[in-house]
């Protein structure tokens, strides 16, 4: 079997999954913690999507860690296909959520501190930035696994 | 050479490119025509991206039409790679622009008819919907061409 760096079960994949878990959790925390995010659809959407991405990435990070440190797992085509599909869908949802959040934050920022006080607004911005980073790593995982797929 | 339906130079690809040109131009027209779109960053971004997608799709539609109706073009790996890369980047930009526009329109809609009169708001919504359709077709083209790439 070809060994693609970054594909399912390698240490590079573990690093990618770790980054995804970190960034998606950070995005979730910046958005949720002591902020009334649910008055805007885009922010609720971001929270929903990041709430899906974080456990998915964490679960796959655990599987990768098992494969790297304990016992190398055999890669089955069906399993890798499911992972690619899941990553694919979540990466698109992440991109859409991140760009919606960024544009809504930009509008609130322009509307002035009455609608969006400066500390809250910068937290929204940070949350959108973290979501973009999470999307980038998630999409890298898709590409690496897609590269692996034909060799299975 | 394998014949993948929807890949560069086939009639299905011509149909996809035609749809992309149509939807991106429609999105551009709904957004630009007699509307002050440039007061919102997200709308300006949509206009920029659709202004790139429309000529790119139209150019490739012309190439596909030449290949289908006049003389079948030989597919070179480098050319198909460039097309895949271009489609890829534009499809991501389209998705980001469409979701930003949709979320900003939703906020303006909630802010009431003072900020966004009903006929204008429904045009923004239509523009976002067209951009989503354009993204969907653009991404289909990416997948078909990506499928063709290893066989070249």
UniProtKB/TrEMBL annotation, chains A, B:
Coiled-coil-forming residues are none
Q: Which UniProt keywords apply?
A: Cell membrane, Membrane, Transmembrane, Transmembrane helix
Instruction: Enumerate the transmembrane spans.
Output: 21-40, 46-70, 82-108, 128-149
Against InterPro entries, the record matches this protein to:
CASP_dom, CASPL-5
Casparian strip membrane protein domain mapped to chain residues: 9-137
Q: Which domain of life is it from?
A: Eukaryota
How does the record classify its membrane topology?
Answer: Multi-pass membrane protein
Please provide, in alphabetical order, the Gene Ontology terms of the cellular component aspect for this entry: plasma membrane
Q: Does the keyword Cell membrane apply?
A: yes
Q: Does the keyword Zinc apply?
A: no
Pfam annotation, one family: CASP_dom
Query: Where in the cell?
Result: Cell membrane
Quaternary arrangement and interactors, per the entry? Homodimer and heterodimers.
Query: Belongs to which family?
Result: Belongs to the Casparian strip membrane proteins (CASP) family.
Protein name listed in UniProt: CASP-like protein
Native species: Rubroshorea leprosula
């Amino acid at each position: 079997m070809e060994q693609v760096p970054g594909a399912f079960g390698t240490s590079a994949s573990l690093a990618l999954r770790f980054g995804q878990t970190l960034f998606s959790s950070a995005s979730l925390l910046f958005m949720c913690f002591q902020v009334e995010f649910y008055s805007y659809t885009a922010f609720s959407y971001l929270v929903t999507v990041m709430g899906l991405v974080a456990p998915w990435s964490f679960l796959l990070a655990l599987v990768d860690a098992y494969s790297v440190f304990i016992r190398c797992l055999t890669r089955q085509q069906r399993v890798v296909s499911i992972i690619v599909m899941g990553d694919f869908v979540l990466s698109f949802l992440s991109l859409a959520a991140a760009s919606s959040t960024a544009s809504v934050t930009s509008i609130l920022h322009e509307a002035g501190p009455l609608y969006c006080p400066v500390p809250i607004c910068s937290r929204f911005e940070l949350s959108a930035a973290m979501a973009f980073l999470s999307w980038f790593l998630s999409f890298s995982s898709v590409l690496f696994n897609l590269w692996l797929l034909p060799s299975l």
